[in-house]
Amino acid sequence: MGFFWTIVLLIVTLGLAWRFLGSYMAAVFDGRVTFLGWLERPFYRLLGTSPDREQSWQRYAASTVVFSGVFLLMGYVLMRIQGSLPLNPQHFGGVTQSLDFNTIASFVTNTNWQNYGGETTMSYFSQIGVLTVQQFVSAAVGIAVAIAVTRGFSRRKSPTIGNFWVDITRCLLYILLPIAFVAGIIMVGQGAVQTLAGPVSIHDAMNGVSQTIPRGPAGFMGPIMQLGTNGGGFFNVDLGHPFENPTALTNFVYMWLTLSIPFALTYTFGKMVGSVRHGVALLVAMVLIFGTWVGFTAYAEHQNNPAVAAAGVHSTVGNTEGKNSYFGDTTSALFNVSMTQTSDGAVDSSTDSYNPIGGFGPLSGMMLGEVSPGGVGSGLYTILLYAVIAVFIGGLMIGRTPEYLGKKIQAREVKLAGLAALVMPITVLVLTAVAVSLHAGRAGPLNAGPHGFSEILYAFTSQGNNNGSAMAGLSGNTTFYNVLGGIDMLIGRFGILIPALALGGALAAKNVVPASLGTFRTDNGMFIGLTIGVIVIIGGLTFFPAVSLGPIVEQLSHGKFF
């Protein structure tokens, strides 16, 4: 299937998901879907709660942090002692303390950054019982927070924004588990490996070479990895491995799984606030940014590598270095942008082998805050933060107190949105500066000059945005990068999540102000343009000096931009 028809089919299927999956999720979180009530109720009794016992934003945030903290501690302990646990046919021992911290921080924060080779480091128990479990749970946390923030916009004079324990239970039972199970059947049917039998050794009689081929329960790990915008693969090369991503169909399904919930949540938002038009406005902003980044990244990767061209070698098929031939250069670029415009991070090609300006696409997409469409849940609540800033600017333009969905946006809301918008760029830039200033940081990249700087900048940008993709040229499995990376991921997750919940709580307590002739509309083209402008300007102003020292100067050093 060519690039054009892949785009067409993706648009059609995502459009269906936006309408029907978005409506279904609204019904789930409104409590109108109850066919698994018999399974829900035991969880509520175990947790000592019920759908009628709602929480303030403070209690909701505390539940989120405590829940994530418990899994952080449990995962750390289990991976340290994995050598003593079952399902370990390779007889792997426990991982180092710094790698353990980095890995569990990564999976708890929905980042899934991997400073290790999955098939050579983690036992089957760790892959299934720790990491795959977190791929379900961390995704549910993100969606639950997005729904709680949405309730803040839809409710009037309410001291509560829902119940965290109810929201994650419903998300797991009605959304993530069923879709991931069906997708897992498709993957295994297409040839993805799903076994607990351990690696297999073969001997090639023709050349006398023996080889050990890793296997494992990868077939059912891939779907939740993508559906939950996690990205942490079973194998070191992730979805570039034929055991995880064997066909063009699985490649397409993986893209659809990654993009479906983040886009569909805009319809959910519109349904829950009583105005689908507002959800459409957010969707259009997401799609315009996403389409632009796909366009210039695919174009850049369809060109020759400038360094190779300068050596007198020319190709008519684009930059194929580090890409599977059955996916091609442009579809690989589409896949990579899909993963970095969400908080997924899985790749089917090597980002380190992209042309400099082609690598600029995934890197800069993350620098926008991953809101087009962003991760499951995190994309929605982050773009709502930017929308609040856009509304504030719009209010200044017309000289009146800004409003969004009838709620007055005042000093507290603007401060919370501004704080959340600046947490990520400040953290990324400070940690990048620390890394390039210290020997332990400069020892990480395997390339010198601008490309080496890009590898460091990409790593902290990816982790700070809870993405997880990487340029493979960075040697990240060191105490320095493991510890700083873990801190980066935790701040990138909770430094935005908590202010977003505080914003939801502040808005839920407000009453609705009737619209008037002076009300700045938030469901038209001007609002869409202003929101995109805020996203691009914040990303551009904070990161342009850094990317100028990396991919831009590397591209220009070869004499041309494209």
General description of the model:
The protein is mostly helical and 562 residues long. Helices cover 63% and strands 2% of the residues. The protein is built from 19 helices and four strands. The protein has a two-stranded antiparallel sheet. The protein has a two-stranded antiparallel ribbon with strand order 3-4. Helix 2 crosses helix 7, helix 7 (164-190) crosses helix 8 (221-227) and helix 13 (356-367) runs antiparallel to helix 19. The radius of gyration is 23 Å and the shape is globular. The relative contact order is 0.12.
Question: What is the succession of H and E elements?
Answer: HHHHHHHEEHHHHHHHEEHHHHH
The separation of the N and C termini measures 26 Å
Per DSSP, what share of the residues sits in E-state strands of 2 or more residues? Answer: under 5%
How much helix, percentage-wise, in residues?
55-70%
Total of domains: 2
Total strand segments: 4
Rg calc: 23 Å
- Mean pLDDT, to the nearest integer, reads 91
> Would you tell me the structural class of the helices and strands?
mainly alpha
How many helix segments? Answer: 19
What's the overall geometry? globular
Report the sheet with the most strands, covering strand number, pairing sense and barrel closure.
2 strands, antiparallel
Low-confidence stretches: none
- Across the major sheet, the strand order is 1-2
